[in-house]
Amino acid sequence: MSLTAGVELAAGERPESAGGGLYRDAFRRLRRSPTAIVGAALVLLFVFVAVFAPLLAPYSPTAVDLTDIRPGVFPGPSAEHPLGLDQLGRDELSRIIYGARYSLLIGVVSLSLGAAVGLTLGLLAGAFGGWVDSLVMRLVDIMLAVPSLLLAIGIAALLGPRLISVMIAIAVVNVPIFARLLRGSMLAQRRSDYALAARSLGVTRSRIVLQHVFPNSLAPVIVQGTLALATAIIEAAGLAFLGLGSPDPAIPEWGRMLAETNAFLASAPLLALWPGLAIVLSVMGFYLLGEALREALDPKLRR
Amino acid sequence: MSLLEVRGLKVHFPIKKGIVLDRTVGQVRAVDGVDLSVEKGRTLGVVGESGCGKSTLGRAVLQLEPITAGTVVFDGEDLSRLRGSALRAMRRRMQMVFQDPLASLDPRQSVASVLAEPLRTHGVKGPYEKRVRELLDLVGLPGSAANRFPHEFSGGQRQRIGIARAIALNPELIIADEPVSALDVSIQAQVVNLLEELQERLGLTYLVIAHDLAVVRHISDDVAVMYLGSVVEIARADELYARPLHPYTIALLSAIPIPDPEVEDRRERVLLTGELPSAANPPPGCRFHSRCPFRQPTRCADEVPALRVLEGFPGSQVACHFAEQIAARELKPVHAEAAEPAATAHGTDTPPDSRRSSAGSPS
Amino acid sequence: MTDPSAGPLTTTSVREAVPGQVRAEPLLKIRDLTVTFASRGRAAVRAVDGVNLDVAAGSTVGIVGESGSGKSVTSLAAMGLLGRRGVEIRGSVDFDGSDLLHMPEQELRAVRGREIAMIFQDPMSSLNPVLTVGRQITEILVRHRGLSGRQARDRAAELLQSVGIGDSLRRLKSFPHQLSGGMRQRVMIAMALACEPRLLIADEPTTALDVTISAQILELLRRLVADTQTALVLITHDLGVVAGLCDTVHVMYSGRIVESAPRRPLFADPRHPYTTGLLASVPRLDAPRGVPLLPIPGSPSDTLPWARGCAFSPRCTRQVDACLGAPPVLEPLALPSHLLRCVNPVPPRKHLG
Fold this sequence. Notes:
The complex is a heterotrimer of chains A (303), B (363) and C (353). With 303 residues, chain A is mainly alpha-helical. Chain A has 12 helices and no strands. Chain A has a single domain, classed as MetI-like fold. In chain A, helix 9 runs antiparallel to helix 10 (205-241) and helix 10 (205-241) packs parallel to helix 11. With 363 residues, chain B is an alpha/beta fold. Chain B has 2 domains: 2-227, P-loop containing nucleotide triphosphate hydrolases (Rossmann fold, 3-Layer(aba) Sandwich); 243-357, no CATH class. In chain B, the strands form 2 sheets. In chain B, strands 6-7-8-3-9-10-12-11 form an 8-stranded mixed sheet, with helices on both faces. Classes of the chains: A mainly alpha (303), B alpha/beta (363), C alpha/beta (353). Chains A and B meet through helix 1, helix 9 and helix 10 of A and helix 2, helix 3, helix 5 and helix 6 of B.
């Protein structure tokens, strides 16, 4: 009896999954997931608006139109100003559009900082184990023990209320998250059979870690990265709301816009709605995308 | 001269406790004094139930687990003394096949990359395409498999990939840990046959570790039966079923169902009572005495039986004080304690067919 | 694997023979059970395809098959345990005169608790990890049998005793994770027995267990059927388990029964190439050594949709032209209780004496 019988048949049975590794496979599944499509659309919209803000915004975010402005009266949506004017007579739509830039900037910078430090720590702990692991993890535990808001206030107090202190504060919050995630993921992968198989082949430890363990540990990190962007936007808005962001009133930051409308909530509720909506939609985009990624990258769901 | 000689092998894992400083509070004696040898070109099967230490034994032979005591001599060289590059060089000559073929393959590696890894690791110069195709052909996979990824294959095909990786460097010894137990029944025979075919073609020596005694017996020349970290019996595979010597082997054999009602109805079952004791706290004396149906009031509980050759059974070694008496049927198994009514031997107390006929026709 | 090009999924119009049909009204009567899984964006998969099955009180019926054969789905569908989303179930499941498929959920739950019990491969996932074993058993006794707390506890201890758990009063206080795998499966059986069910469905009850423990559990089930007239449906991939335990055996492949017979004729004279293939591909402990194994080529996923012929034909060594085109029908052989779905069966074995 031929040993190859049936092999050709099985090899040709799933044309949809022909070729491709983990990520191509995940991408294929993402394209079929409604969650991923909605999430990706929101994220793309957000990034597009942020990048092309100067082209999209009808006015400068700092330009003041005083024609209709009187104390306590806020001109609502009109043909010239689709979302109306804010308390200082600036075009709300333009400010929302420019606000996306700051949210994206804060998100990307703080995430990159936090992930870079966190992943380095996680990689060290996960790759070496032993006392390196213990040391790194105790450090991370200490970071986790400090409430993130307190940390942010402390940093803001130290560096003064500036954009960069918000970024650093959010980055610091992200460090232990990424460190623990990567370390845990790497430890699990190091115990896997294929790592053992590589050891039994005589592959050196550093090569096993770099070629097999680390790349296979990245899937949860990618998911976390997407979710962390969402959290960063919320945190940035939250810190700005508390007055810990940049004090420059010219900067149209969503959180601060929200805070500033606080006083006029009764007379101009729409002014609170717009930045709120912007925050919700962008955060939701990253969350949906993150959840879809988590599902797409789950090895248990692969066939 | 044996290709592989294992002498007095012990692998103990420390049990650690403590929040700040780890304290060792005990030891799991996963492998506790095992002697084995495998001749070149032959197959030694190791069977036992979960927790008997058979997998740890296989990994310890390959120096993938830290050895507590004993030696593993491969072709005259004591592996337990080798470190670093000297050990890595020896790894070229002995390879492993794993139980779960999907878990043992890096999901991000294509088949070609999986098969090239051992070659690259041991300094074989590329390109590897030709050798990869050769290997795929050897294990009965089409050349087109090279560019595919592990998850695109069926279980049996994945195991073929695992086997191809193991033979890539033309090793002498292959340790197969449960090579077929994760596969569908109809696929298992394909892999068993492949292993046998490769042994013949490439002159391989096998150490096959499995819980399925029927599979192990089929593929092996000799079979070692393990219980709680030590070998209780080693026998020629063709004699094992006919003349099991150790009480545990007898119980194990009688517990394995045979797909034949005629045989099933007539078989005498020796059912074990109780549960497997913890390897952290094994019973004194003979490890099996706490569950042994042939347990005697003397020696069993306080004297560790050594693996010995029995007169009249030249091919076998057994670790039981009363093996002669059991073989001569002078001792009978004790069944059924009050708390364990399940342990009644079926087929001995009821005529095989009366039970059937009464159950088959409701009154 | 249903091929979308196979056209609409239709049930065979041919009246098929019913395996294991008994003269007295059977306890469980499954007719034309068909289960189709349909999820958006994917081709519908017919997991069970027109299965007929009779189980008489006090009998043991085995369903044998590999992964994807539909053996487990059959029992889950019959018991209404498949959920509703994306599942289409057709046919009828008659349990002692009432149709389980069209029963209100609440009533069905009562039947499942009181008259039909199930045990699964992994007892850990069926036991509640935060409740003691005793609590879980007594709860059933109180709810379904109306015992008082004290009575229930005594009865629970008795039950544990009867499934071979010694020191049962102390064991009642254990949590599932404190027990070994074999012990947990015993607890599951004790729970299943708590209501003295008339039908017990055991889905791979010993697959996760070691051989010696598995032998104990099988012995327990065997005794249970003999002592209490409980009907047992045993679902397994292991022909050896079936050979020793079942009165009637059904072999399933790709959602349909391909051969069924009382166990002795089935093993003495297997006629379907899949049945003989399975038997020839597992090494027998009592066979002389050196007998080569004859594997079934391909893998269980290499199937043909039944609508286009015999699903096993791509792997079958006896494939002929007649295997393709129309689906083969399940028909009785010379022995009326021996049913076969094959157009080119293995010739009968020569009987000695």
